[in-house]
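Sequence decides. Our protein:
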Amino acid sequence: MSFQRARSDEQREVRRQRILAVASDMLEEMPVAQVSLNELSRRVGLAKSNVLRYFESREAILLQLLDAELHQWAAQVDAMLVETPADRAERIAQVADLMAESIAARPVLCDLISAQSAVLERNISTEVAMQHKYAIGGEVQTVVRAMVRAVPELSEAQAWQVLAYTILLTAGAWPQSRPAPAIQAAYDLYPQLAAGQMDFTDTVRDLIRITITGLLASA
């Protein structure tokens, strides 16, 4: 697709949204590491220099997509975590199940989280960094309030700690649970090599449950 020059704010916003939509489609096809500015520009139908008129870097584009994915996940968690009359252990287990299963069901979000600190936050301006941090701050508050609603024994500070650990574990466990083709081939040939391979959902579920239980026990 080719575009005429965008001359109004509305046209520029359409162009920005088109770039984001194409980048989002690419993430459904390939991991973050393979999303290049050259290929994105080709698919959008713009020269790379023109794409950079709307976003300062590839990383800035992907950070906006991370913000959008986090917004959708936070809204889902907020809708799922409700007050129940169950005992505390059961409520903690429910929170762990729902949060782990919902984040695991969003592979694009998990992939973006795994690249966030090491890649996506390395080639951006202070302005983009501030916009990103403010955006995710709102999503964090949504998830924190939902956890406190489901487990009222948790303070907001404790719920924030649970979420922080969940994001940190996602960043490390997601790529580890998705081995590269050569590693997977080695596992297939020699299953004993895969003895330490983790299931992503089970690992996140266990971490959330253990963290909440531990925080409440030590309070």
User: Anything to note?
Assistant: The radius of gyration is 20 Å. The chain has ten helices and no strands. Residues 184 and 190 are 10 Å apart (CA to CA). Residues 57-218 form a domain with the Tetracycline Repressor; domain 2 fold (CATH 1.10.357.10).
